[in-house]
Amino acid sequence: MSHFSYQDGVLHAESTPLSRVAEEFGTPTYVYSKSALLENFAAYADACRGRDALVCYAMKANSNLAILDLLAREGAGFDIVSGGELLRVIAAGGDPGKVIFSGVGKTVAEMRLALEHGILCFNVESIPELHRLNEVAGSMGKRAPVSLRVNPNVDAKTHPYIATGLKANKFGVAFDDALATYRTAASLPNLDVVGIDCHIGSQLLDDAPLLEALDKLIELIDTLDTEGIHIHHLDIGGGIGVDYGAAGDAPPVPVGDYLGRLFARIDAWRAARHEGRAVKVIFEPGRSIVASTGVLLTRVEFLKPGVEKNFCIIDAAMNDMMRPTLYGAWMDMKAVAPRTGDVPELYDVVGPVCESGDWLARERALAVQPGDLLAMMSAGAYGMTMASNYNTRGRAAEVIVDGEQMHLVRRREEPAELYALESMLK
Ligand SMILES: *Cc1c(COP(=O)(O)O)cnc(C)c1O
C-alpha cells in the first residue's frame, strides 16, 4: 500500500490528511511518512539478513536528524560526503564506526575529524588524496582504513548530471589505473587497504549496469589477491532508482530482486574459489530509501493566464526543490483535495523566485483554484537537502507523520535568521 493515498477525497500521509498538516504548520512543508521510510529500509535489510552486509544510507539524499535517527535505530550505517555530515550522524546518535566517507575533495580538517571519530572507511578517489590521508593519519599516530573508488566505466544510462561511472566523470580512479593506485596505497605506512568501492550513477531503473560493475570489481579483487593486497569489503554504491510516475517510464527494478541477483553472483564467485573467501558487502543507497517517503506540500497563490501558457503560481519554488530545473526532472503534482466537478486546464506550475528556471512542473492538467493545496510527490530525496535561501526565502518546514500523529522535525526558517550571520562595515 502506498503511504500517500486519497481517503474521503483528501490526500493523506498515512492516516493524516495533508490539509491538517498545512493548517498546523503552513506551506511549503516537506511531509514524510515514517512507515514508508522503515519499509524502504527494510527492503535492503531483509535482503541482507544472515549475510555479512552493511547498508550505509547516503545521507546527502535527506539528512534530517529524525530520519537519520530512525535509520540508525534500524541498524543503518551512513555514507557521508563531508565533515558536516559526520557531525550530523553523531548528533543523531548514529555510530561513526558504520560510516564511510566518499567524495573527491576531502579537506585535511575533514580527514582529521573522521579519524578522531574512528569511521569505518575512507572511500578514496585519487592518488593525491591517498598521500594527504597518509600524512594526516601519520600526524595523529593513526592508521586510516581505505577503499579505492574504482570507476568501472560502465554506462549507467541515466541523466548526464547523475552518471558518475564513466571515464569522463570527475569521480573515482580509472579502472586501468586501479592496480597501480592500489600498489601506491599499500606502500603508504599509515594506510590500511581494506576495501574496494564504486558508485556508477543515480536513478538507475535497471540493475544490469550495477551487475556489470560488480563483475569488474570482483575481477580486480582477484588480481589484487595475487599481488598480496587482500580486500575485505566490497562496496557497490547506491543508485537504484524510484518510480516518479512519469507516463511511459519503466518501473525501477525491485530492491529485493537486485540484491538477490547481486548476492547470487557473489556467492558463485566465492564458491568457485576454494577458500570461499569472506567479503563484507556494503551498499550506499540514498534515493531508493527516502524519495517515496516524502511529498512537498504547497499552496496555490495565483492562477495567471498567459498568451502561450497558463501559469499556476505556488508558494514553493526552485529554492525548495531544485530537481526539475537542475535535471529536467519530472515529478508528479497532485491536488490534495481534487475538484472532481471542474474541467482541468493545462498549467506550468511555477514558484515566486525571479528566474525563468523557477518551475516545478510543466504542462500539467489541473483543476485548481487559488488557495488549493498541491503535493509534489516522491520529493523525499534531494529535495530539502538541496534547498537554498535564494531570494531570502526561509527553507520549508519538515514534518514526519506516524499514523495520525504529526511531528515537526524542522521548523520553518524566519527571515531574520537568514541574515543573522551577516554584519555591516564599521
Ligand atoms: C549520491 C551517492 C550515493 C547515493 O546515490 P542514490 O542514487 O541516491 O542511491 C551513493 N554513493 C555515493 C558515493 C554518492 O555520491
How would you sum up this structure in a few lines?
The protein has 12 helices and 21 strands.
Which helices and strands, and how do they pair?
Blueprint: E1 4-7, E2 10-13, E3 16-17, H1 18-25, E4 29-33, H2 34-48, E5 53-58, H3 65-73, E6 77-80, H4 83-91, E7 99-101, H5 108-116, E8 121-124, H6 127-139, E9 144-151, E10 173-174, H7 178-187, E11 191-197, H8 208-226, E12 233-235, H9 255-272, E13 280-283, H10 287-290, E14 294-305, E15 310-314, H11 323-327, E16 333-335, E17 345-350, E18 359-366, E19 373-376, E20 397-402, E21 405-410, H12 415-418
Parallel strand pairs: 4-20, 5-6, 5-13, 6-7, 7-8, 8-9, 9-10, 9-11, 11-12, 12-13, 15-17
Antiparallel strand pairs: 1-2, 2-3, 4-14, 14-15, 14-19, 16-19, 17-18, 20-21
Helix pairs in contact: 2-9, 5-6, 8-9
The chain binds pyridoxal-5'-phosphate.
Radius of gyration: 23 Å
C-alpha end-to-end distance: 60 Å
Domain module count? 2
Summarize the amount of helix as a percent range: 25-40%
User: How confident is the prediction overall: mean pLDDT?
Assistant: 95
Bound molecules: pyridoxal-5'-phosphate
Number of helices in the DSSP assignment: 12
Give me the CATH superfamily of the largest domain: Alanine racemase
User: What structural class should be given to the helix and strand makeup?
Assistant: alpha/beta
